[in-house]
Amino acid sequence: MVAAVTPSTLLVGTMHALLAFDPMNGVVRRLHEGAGSYYGIAYDKDGFWVACRCEVKGQELPFIGRFHWDGSLHVKIRPPFPLHDMHQMQLADDKLWVVCSGHERIVRYDLASQVWDIWPDNKAERDVQPLNSIWVDS
């Protein structure tokens, strides 16, 4: 059983794993690995969301993972369009906002309706503006 992630725990996304660092005792735990780079972490009272980029050939398609506070992966969500190079992520008003720098998009997932939106819809799928970060006032 993985020890619970607490309010003092620092969640750290690396190129190969999602880590939990407890600054109170200096312990680092590997919560998840095998999904490429781990970018963007958002949280709510029930757990946290992490962008899993899956860049290595043969890995599954990129997804956003929903983790419980015990560190276990609960669910994977994927839109009906590519999530290339996910970066920052934020949860506001029951909507998950994710910056995807690969296609220069900001995608929004409504947790209640399970509907995805894209801004802008970069149909050319080429670099126009380098998007990396987002902040949403909630």
Q: Could you describe the 3D structure shown?
A:
This protein is mostly beta strands and 138 residues long. The protein contains no helices and eleven strands. The chain has strands spanning 10-13, 17-22, 27-33, 38-44, 47-52, 63-68, 73-77, 86-92, 95-100, 105-110, 115-119.
Range of strand content: over 45%
SS field, number of helical segments: 0
**What is the number of E strands?**
11
Rounded to an integer in angstroms, the radius of gyration calculated over CA atoms is: 15 Å
Structural class: mainly beta
Mean pLDDT: 86
Structure summarized in a few sentences:
This protein has 138 residues and is mainly beta. The chain is 0% helix and 47% strand. The termini are far apart.
Task: Write the SSE topology.
Blueprint: E1 10-13, E2 17-22, E3 27-33, E4 38-44, E5 47-52, E6 63-68, E7 73-77, E8 86-92, E9 95-100, E10 105-110, E11 115-119
Antiparallel strand pairs: 1-2, 2-3, 4-5, 5-6, 6-7, 8-9, 9-10, 10-11
Features:
138 residues; mainly beta; four-stranded antiparallel β-sheet
